[in-house]
Amino acid sequence: GGSRPDIDRKDANPELFYFSHNKIAFFGLNQVTGPAYIDGTTINEDWIEDRLSLDTNCELESIVIVAHRMPEQTVYDRVDSYFAHCGGSALPILTVTGDVHPRDYCMTRSNNRLHLTVEAFRSGPIKVSVVRDPNGFEGDFFHVFDTQPVGGGCPKLL
Q1: Would you say 66 and 27 are in contact if contact means Cβ atoms under 8 Å apart?
Q2: d(Cα 106, Cα 20) in Å, to the nearest integer?
Q3: Residue 148 vs residues 60, 83, 94, 107, 153: alpha-carbon distances, Å
Q4: C-alpha to C-alpha distance for 154 and 48, rounded to whole angstroms
Q5: Over 80: is that where the pLDDT of 53 sits?
Q6: Tens of pLDDT along 68-114?
Q7: Which of 68-100 are b and which e, b meaning 16 or more Cβ less than 10 Å from the residue's Cβ?
Q8: 36-43 LR contacts (CB < 8 Å, sep 24+)
Q9: pTM of the full structure
């Protein structure tokens, strides 16, 4: 059961989306082509900043970003500004990307940030669960399940 959150899309770039559910912010970022090409602009950064500003009471407990390619550091700078505004403690962030055509799709970790790169033509769909610490001390944890595992460990794609 439960209700579904409303998905907010940027009018000029509907591939950019945002929704919040159970104190988790979900962002969809993209690098589009054609007349709306965004490389070299701050459209992703502005979208993140604008949507995070909706959380005026600093209630978010984690963030999930899905993007065509790894977001620029400036995107994370805007997230860090939100953290600073909300008391300075960094929330767990999971970023799922798919454009670098990696040799494997293992998850890497940097501080409270997890990065998962998937290769669209070789990896199966993934299922992401956000698990909240029942005691409220450890924050949120991400569980990523590969629905079509290749075998033990991280599959080699070359």
Answers
A1: yes
A2: 26
A3: 31, 35, 20, 16, 13
A4: 31
A5: yes
A6: 878 888 899 999 999 999 987 778 899 888 765 555 556 666 777 88
A7: eebbeeebbebbeebbeebeeebbbbbbbbbee
A8: 36/12, 38/13, 42/74, 43/10, 43/13, 43/16
A9: 0.81
